[in-house]
Design goal:
heterodimer, A: mainly alpha, 3 helices, B: 182 residues, alpha+beta, nine-stranded mixed beta sheet, 26% helix
Chain lengths: 69, 182
């Protein structure tokens, strides 16, 4: 029983550890917003949304021979 | 767990790029986009640029170099952070690169021309420089102990020879590279 409790505690700890960036509360989206988003989504889906930033990222990494990891 | 509420996001693309849209409900309603776009493959790992900005209805384009000052910065930032675990769920071996649109030399030069912050334009000081990355750094510094249990974080230095180093809280970086721990 003691062993089981400590196993559960360990599982709880692991669960908590994995949720650091996950938001505790998600604010709902109205039907009107969903409709607005679906119209915009059709327009931009799959397009390069931030080309300047992507170009800057490519430039930064252009001379990188290996990853730091 | 991040205790700041996040807006609900709508996944609009899950192909090579991962794109989300959501609505910021601050002073006004603004549609914002989050994008993870692949730009480099190295050592079998794909590096994705994390892009984030406002949808400009008039021009049907994205703006990532303006401050909308919509009064809900924390919620918006929480929404962006909330997509990171989702990304790593399907891209365990890949990495996320974060760099603000105000972290380039070009930004500094352009900002000098229209400076409203009273910076001494004869020096290299620009109060708007690196403002966006500072938000990410502030969050990482505050939650560093918990974050490194789950992620491996590197900072990109801003010296004469910029390089990747192990992230150390309170140090200055112009970019952040994040991997998921195995």
């Amino acid at each position: 029983m003691v062993k089981n409790n400590s196993a559960f505690r360990m599982l709880d700890k692991m669960k908590q550890k994995k949720q650091i960036l996950k938001a505790e509360k998600i604010l709902s989206m109205s039907k009107k917003t969903k409709e607005r988003i679906s119209i915009i989504a059709k327009d931009i889906k799959g397009k390069e949304l931030f080309p300047k930033k992507l170009a800057s990222a490519k430039k930064t990494f252009s001379n990188l021979k290996s990853l730091p990891i | 767990m991040n205790n700041v509420p996040a807006y609900k996001t709508q996944l609009i693309s899950n192909q090579s790029k991962i794109q989300y849209l959501f609505e910021s409900k601050g002073n006004i309603r603004i549609i914002k986009a989050i994008e993870y776009a692949p730009f480099k493959k190295q050592n079998g790992k794909i590096i994705y640029n994390l892009g984030f900005g406002d949808y400009d209805v008039a021009n049907r384009t994205m703006l990532d170099d303006i401050n909308s000052n919509n009064g809900d910065t924390r919620k918006v930032f929480s929404t962006v952070l909330n997509t990171v675990p989702l990304f790593f769920k399907t891209h365990k071996d890949d990495a996320i690169w974060v760099q603000g649109s105000d972290s380039s030399k070009r930004f500094k030069n352009d900002c000098k021309k229209i400076c409203k912050k009273g910076c001494d334009t004869n020096t290299d000081v620009c109060k708007n420089f690196n403002r966006r990355i500072k938000i990410y750094r502030y969050y990482i510094n505050k939650n560093f102990i918990d974050l490194i249990k789950e992620y491996v974080i590197f900072g990109y230095t801003n010296g004469k020879t910029p390089t990747f180093v192990q992230y150390v809280p309170e140090n200055e970086y112009i970019g952040i590279l994040v991997f998921k721990k195995k």
